[in-house]
């Protein structure tokens, strides 16, 4: 994997709409038309952003189906790190912050939330455990994600940025 491939992958997630598309495609295989309807954007806009994500390896074509004489591709987001080989993955922090603000406006009132912001010094073993727990939480919600508006489900947001720092 070259540095230019890594840069392309990172840039592909540097747009709030593309982050929303990745979230949708975690739980379901969708066509560009279905993505467009769910997100309230044009079919052309959804198709463009899906192509950017596909070119960067962030989504894959999960299948094709015939629709009104044409062929529609269905996409999915392979979210597990092992699905991406040795390629570094990440999200542009400015895009992540922008999306967090949008999601905060949709926050359900009540106590079922957790907010943490910390810049601390801890022992390496403590940090390793904390990162394992964050990864476990992320994997849990990704693995259990269901298609939008599935009966018995509720929309949630999990935004995590956990990283070691230089002294």
Features:
167 residues; mainly alpha; two-stranded antiparallel ribbon; 6 helices
How would you characterize this protein structure?
It is a single chain. By secondary structure, the chain is mainly alpha-helical. It is 45% helix and 9% strand. It contains 6 helices and 2 strands; from the N terminus they run ααααββαα. The chain has helices at 3-12, 16-27, 32-39, 43-55, 93-104, 124-143, and strands spanning 60-67, 70-76. Strands 1-2 form a two-stranded antiparallel sheet. β1 and β2 form a beta hairpin. The longest helix has 20 residues, at 124-143. The model has no long low-confidence stretch (mean pLDDT 89).
Q: Give the percentage of residues in beta strands.
A: 5-15%
Largest sheet: 2 strands, antiparallel
Span of the ends, CA to CA: 30 Å
Structural class: mainly alpha
Report the average pLDDT across residues.
89
The residue ranges in which pLDDT falls below 50 over 5 or more consecutive positions are none
- The portion of residues assigned to helices is 40-55%
* Major sheet: arrangement of strands: 1-2
Q: What's the helix-strand series? A: HHHHEEHH
Rg (C-alpha, Å): 17 Å
The total strand number stands at 2
